[in-house]
Specification:
The chain is an alpha+beta fold and 179 residues long. The chain has 2 domains: 98 residues, no CATH class; 73 residues, no CATH class. The protein is built from 8 helices and 6 strands. The strands form 2 sheets. It has a 3-stranded mixed β-sheet with strand order 1-3-2, covered by helices on one side. Strands 4-5-6 form a 3-stranded antiparallel β-sheet, covered by helices on one side. The N and C termini lie far apart (49 Å). This is IrrE N-terminal-like domain-containing protein.
């Protein structure tokens, strides 16, 4: 039996609290790659099956956070006022940001750095996500992390500098004590 990929693992992890379905032609019929519905206290997530496993994983994570953060389906309707539309867009961003933080962590970026993975493509492949998702996740993470902070790992303390990307610098014991 082949090992399960991240998408399949997440589907199994969510079941039975959230049931994941892959209806044929979801995107063709709705213009959505993924959506969710809560009916009779059961959450369902619908994922377009005709896309890569990495895309399905990313979309499933985002839809999962919609289930956790939304009180009802986030659909814009023509009769909605400005504030209702703004609220829906805000909920959409919250779910997407939670997915970014969950899928691309500082530990993941550090692990990539330690393994000498430098390009967006190499890192995305290592994390089993798309380079577009990685790019957007890093852009978001750069906006929420301070420009300098330290992390503690099993092999020491590192200074992380955030500018165009995340840069890691191992601190000597003397430097560690000073920070």
């Amino acid at each position: 039996m082949l090992p399960m990929n991240k998408y399949e693992n997440l589907v199994n992890e969510l079941y039975p609290e959230i049931i994941v379905l892959e209806p044929q032609n979801l995107y063709q019929n709705t213009d959505w790659w993924g959506t969710f519905k809560i009916k009779d206290n059961q959450a369902y997530i619908f994922i377009e099956p005709q896309q890569s496993e990495a895309d399905k994983y990313q979309i499933l994570k985002e839809e999962f956070y919609h289930v956790l953060t939304a009180v009802n389906i986030l659909l814009e309707r023509p009769n909605m006022d400005y504030y209702e539309r703004l609220s829906i867009r805000k909920q959409e961003l919250i779910a997407r940001h939670l997915a970014y933080k969950d899928i691309v962590t500082i530990d993941d970026l550090f692990d990539c750095w330690k393994n000498d993975l430098n390009t967006e493509w190499e890192i995305a492949e290592h994390l089993d996500i798309t380079s577009e998702f990685l790019h957007n996740a890093v852009k978001y993470l750069k906006s929420v992390y301070p420009t300098r902070f330290t992390i503690h790992t099993t092999d020491g303390k590192y200074l992380v500098k955030v500018n165009n990307t995340f840069n890691f610098y191992r601190l000597s014991p003397d430097q560690s004590a000073a920070i």
